[in-house]
Amino acid sequence: MIIEVSNLKKRYKKQMVLKGIDIQVETPQIIALVGPNGSGKTTLLNCMTNLLSFQEGKVRLLGKKHTDASLFYKVSYLQDNRILYGNLTGYDHLKFVCSVQKIPFSKIKEVAERVGMEKYMKKRVRNYSLGMKQHLLLAMVIINEPKLLLMDEPLNGLDPTSAINMRNILLELYQEGTTIIVSSHNLDEIDRLTNTIYFMKDGALLKESLQDISAKKYLITINDIGKAQKVLNDKSIPFSVTDEYQVGFEETDIDLQSFIDSLNENDITITDIEVQKVGAEKRYRELFEEELSP
Amino acid sequence: MRLLSFELNKILFSKKFLYILIGIVIGVAFLMGRNIIFESSIEKEAREQVDDLLEINFANSKIHQAVLDDDPENEEEKELRRLNSAMINNLYETRNLLEPNQFQERLRLQNEYYATAEEYKEKGGEHSLTFQEISYSLALNEKLLELNIPPEHETYSRALPNFIKQVVDLFLSLGAILIIILLVGEIMSSEFENRSINLLFTQPLKRTHIITSKFLSSIILYLITTIFLLATTSVIGYIFGYQGFFNYPIVIEVNNAFQFITIAEYMQLGIILVSLSIFMIISLCILFSLLFKHTLATLFTVLGLLAVGYGMTAIVSWSPLTWFNPFQYLLPLEAILFQNGREWWQGIPVTLLLTIMLYVVARQRVKTSKVD
């Protein structure tokens, strides 16, 4: 068993933060942990890694009790960038992880190249941008080739290139047999990463497989955004403007052909069509309707 | 060991450590600058001391004369007047021997003066010098004459050993405590405040090793800082001062009698004793950091405890208590200079024992420590 969490209950004073969480993972997979702020995502990950105490329940990772520090040879936890030491370099951090994990220092260069931080590895962390810190955090958690990787908001502060790079690395790790639990607010990235989503709502866990939810979002690049807005509004077609030459709409609202026809009828030229999965977002909207309503 | 080098790196390459080292260099240089500036006033100060004593003796002289005018046959008063006159003559001679190269003659004259003053007081005369002060000065001067070492000014000496002693005295009088609080007061609590403890807690490390490495790295940092302080003082003293004598005598009281240790022994003892207190403070800081997880709360509690502990030391002077008082070496000069009914080392076992106990409790505590 890779992850075995049974009836995990955590209470802060009188407030129940985790209400009997159960997670069983037997085969490697990528699981997304999704929920609004304060829903208990970080608390769950912290409880699983023995950073927080809990009142009830049992946690075992890779067959070991969660209090056994030796499990961190094969379990990594990517956390908030505040865990980094500003006056040390990225190299110092990686060297530290290598030394406590008994990994040869030669691995540092290899992993730095893999995450794309070799150029600033010798800089002090206090001079790092948010994205650079995320790179370092990623390097620190993958250097030991973990069997289980827990990630709390790993996409924070990443530019699109870095986000794509991180996604590719995670997919590679998954293919190499690593189980990944990733908590994130970035529903687009989650849709690209996995179909297994655990939604957290008020301390409870709702497990979903989005394989059957094949909702798609289309991003249409056009030559005249003003005209398109007018046409779509006149026809009462729901849409969103994603940038100055792009509008987006969901498949559930209108099918692609009708949308294209509406634009063509009004001499609006379409230059590109991008298709995005929106299962996570769609389900999120359904589950957290109350939070989303103004 | 792996964790220890990481812990050392964290502080050695911090701005805070750099500022502390710069502060030490500036402080020591300032002290030497002050000594150079005020060196010229040493002779003036000595002359003023002689003049003050002369004033006292002249005043006494008038009193004796007045008494003898009323009672010319008063033999006791005649004897006092004779001794007083001898002191006045002695002081006139001393005034002409204030050059540094005339120190032997001056010390002999001073001792004659002190011996006369003692006799004068014993025979009922009044003098501003106490018997204690007279005995102290007599003993020190005799030792200096025996060793053929010129006396150095207590505050403004540029002699290398005496200059180092001035710095060491400041170090022993709260300096070391201040440095260690600045250096490692937040070594554990800041980990909780910054959440960096999460990094350590999610590595395959025994949590007790984190405490051990924090403790050892704090001690190593303290030793590095102390060595840096002594090295800086020695270099500045060597360049801007003069050679002096490391066997310069320091007077200590042992069971109400004066004894001597060399200035080198005095500094060694002082540094050893204050270091024991520093180890205890490090243990206190680590333990309270684990309890409060907050730097200010930790520092307030530690400093409050030290203040109360030392306050009790000052209030309760019962000698056997020194076996049980772990706070007596916070300001260790008292323990070295005044060994009346007690030995300087008596507090070592209890201080070490408390340090070890605090360390063991911290090791136990960290096993169940959480970040919430």
Q: Mean of residue pLDDT of chain B?
A: 93
What is the CATH superfamily classification of the largest domain in chain A? Answer: P-loop containing nucleotide triphosphate hydrolases
Overall number of strands of chain B:
3
For the residues shown, what is the average pLDDT of chain A?
88
Tell me what the structure shows.
Chain A is an alpha/beta fold and about 290 residues long. Chain A has 2 domains: about 210 residues, P-loop containing nucleotide triphosphate hydrolases (Rossmann fold, 3-Layer(aba) Sandwich), CATH 3.40.50.300; about 60 residues, Alpha-Beta Plaits (2-Layer Sandwich). Chain A has 10 helices and 14 strands. Chain B is elongated, with a radius of gyration of 27 Å. In chain B, about 75% of the residues lie in helices and about 5% in strands. Chain B starts with a helix and ends in a 5-residue tail after the last helix. In chain B, a hairpin with a 2-residue loop joins strand 1 and strand 2. Chain B has 2 domains: about 250 residues, no CATH class; about 110 residues, no CATH class. The model of chain B has no long low-confidence stretch (mean pLDDT about 95). Classes of the chains: A alpha/beta (about 290), B mainly alpha (about 375). At the A-B interface, helix 2 of A face helix 1 and helix 9 of B.
Which characteristics define this entry?
heterodimer, A: 294 residues, alpha/beta, Rossmann fold, Alpha-Beta Plaits, 2 domains, six-stranded mixed β-sheet, four-stranded antiparallel β-sheet, 10 helices, 14 strands, 34% helix, globular, B: 372 residues, mainly alpha, three-stranded mixed β-sheet, 14 helices
